[in-house]
Amino acid sequence: MEKTYVIKDAEKVLVYQIEQGGTQERKPMKKIPIKYMKEMSLPTTRDSEGYCALYKMDCGDGLGLMTVYQVYPGIQVIYNDFEAAGCEWEENLDRDILEINHCREGREGSRLLSGSCLYLGEGDLSIHTMDNCAPEMSFPLRHYRGISVLINLKMAAETPPEILSESGIDILKFKEKFCHDGNCFIMRAKDEIEHIFSELYSVPECLQRPYLKLKVQELLLFLCMVDVSKEKQRTQYTSPQVELVKEIHKRLTANLQERPTIEELSKEYLINTATLKDTFKGIYGQPIGAYMKEYRIRQAADLLRQTRVSIAEIASQVGYENQSKFASAFRDIMKIAPAEYRKQSSDE
């Protein structure tokens, strides 16, 4: 049976649109009542029943796609596919709309109205009310794949999914359970989350509608059983900390031939070394040293593919004076020698 890979199909459309350049005329969005994206165009495609729509976003520094499925009254499943640093939406969203986010690839950041910032890594899940977050999402790695389940609690309570009616679960209590006092609930990656969401990223087209219904019900039953008090929450970072570390990240990636130490950065930007290390890892998912090593090698890989500059010169451009150390680092990250990588790329 042929499978339709929703995220992969969306990625193909996204790549095509990036290559074509330009975006559609921005118009007010009428068909998705939950998130009003500032950059969202009219649907690229939509089925005749209003069950599925594909929206394209011009994020200023990149593009994104949202594939939206109306699974139940008041419940939407959205496949998010972004190659951008972030996106924004209109404010004044309903406090009784719950957003459940699952990060598949990349990282996703949200800023609460309190000013605190939270970040999801691969496999993590978050739950918050839409009115408790600033009208923006950030993608620190400029790449994000994930699923959002949006629940209009009042509407879903009036016409609940079948299994909720049978089990007597009150979906209205989810808000108090997970978002008490305006909190945002984070669940670190675990097997139970992976089981629920992994299967949603590849669904046979002929089974898609009933399968989405089944998985939404499974998710709601799982959340009903979660003991919030036993889930260790992720660290929250203040907005000033985040903005400062983003400046440091910009400094580090702007000139790869420079290698300032953490102590030097701490003094220059007047930030405690422990805070710098912890916040950087929280935003970008890796310690500074490991992140910069991979960043340098990824940049080198681009140069190997796109130019005929010598390997020695590329090593120097990305901050390696010693070519053998560069070759060793390249093999660590890319699992192949630089010369062989260039040869394979030219043969494709």
Largest sheet: 8 strands, antiparallel
CATH architecture designation of the largest domain: Sandwich
Structural class category: alpha+beta
Which sequence of SSEs, written as H and E, runs from N to C?
HEEEEEEEEEEEHHHEHHEHHHHHHH
Give the termini separation. Answer: 29 Å
Report what the structure shows.
With 348 residues, the protein is of the alpha+beta class. It is 41% helix and 21% strand. It has helices at 6-20, 153-158, 162-167, 173-179, 191-198, 208-225, 239-254, 262-269, 273-284, 288-306, 311-317, 323-334, 338-347; strands at 45-46, 52-58, 63-72, 75-83, 86-88, 97-106, 108-111, 116-120, 125-129, 136-138, 144-152, 185-187, 237-238. The strands form three sheets. An eight-stranded antiparallel sheet has the order 1-2-3-4-11-6-9-12. The longest helix is centred in the C-terminal third of the chain and has 19 residues, at 288-306. The two termini are 29 Å apart. Residues 1-11 and 21-34 have low confidence and may be disordered.
